[in-house]
Amino acid sequence: MKQIHVVGAALIENGKVLATKRNEDRILGSLWEFPGGKIEPGETPEQALKREIEEEFSDEITVGIKVGETSSITYDFGTVNLSIYLAKFNTHNFHLIAHSDIQWIQKDDLEKMNWADADKLAVQALKKIDFTKVDF
Ligand SMILES: Nc1nc2c([nH]c(=O)n2[C@H]2C[C@H](O)[C@@H](COP(=O)(O)OP(=O)(O)OP(=O)(O)O)O2)c(=O)[nH]1
């Protein structure tokens, strides 16, 4: 099975985390995710995440620690290996091109979103983090 290595950003701000809804016409369309994308050859996860957020929002971020373990989910198009990192925005342009909706959510509302399967492990790990104390 084709291995797809993906990074996502759990962007923290004002005690909330950003959830983004994938555009309808994309693979796994309409599901909620952490923004990011595939790691290109030669990139570190951090470089990939910064590039993807620049592409998807025209925004610059700082990347922190990894949240929980990498999760692997197999679909007919390949196995998605997803790693989520804490992050924060340095700019706030939010020029959305890949998402139909974004929402800042409190920890208690994390499980209310219709997450892509691979994201559920990170969602559980995020529940153990105090967003108001995240600092990097
Ligand atoms: N970005 C992102 N992708 C996720 C998450 N969870 C999850 O299963 N995926 C899947 C969807 C896609 O199959 C793959 C990432 O592809 P993508 O379409 O977001 O990445 P990309 O911009 O690099 O891809 P492309 O359109 O250039 O081909 O991982 C998530 O939280 N964030």
UniProtKB/TrEMBL annotation:
It is an enzyme of class 3 (hydrolase). It holds the Pfam family NUDIX_4. Its EC number is 3.6.1.55. The keyword Cytoplasm does not apply. It catalyses: 8-oxo-dGTP + H2O = 8-oxo-dGMP + diphosphate + H(+). The keyword Cytoplasm does not apply. GO terms for molecular function: 8-oxo-7,8-dihydrodeoxyguanosine triphosphate pyrophosphatase activity; 8-oxo-7,8-dihydroguanosine triphosphate pyrophosphatase activity; 8-oxo-dGDP phosphatase activity; 8-oxo-GDP phosphatase activity; metal ion binding. Keywords: DNA damage, DNA repair, DNA replication, Hydrolase, Magnesium, Metal-binding, Mutator protein. GO terms for biological process: DNA repair; DNA replication. Belongs to the Nudix hydrolase family. This is 8-oxo-dGTP diphosphatase. It comes from Paucilactobacillus nenjiangensis. The lineage of its organism: Bacteria, Bacillati, Bacillota, Bacilli, Lactobacillales.
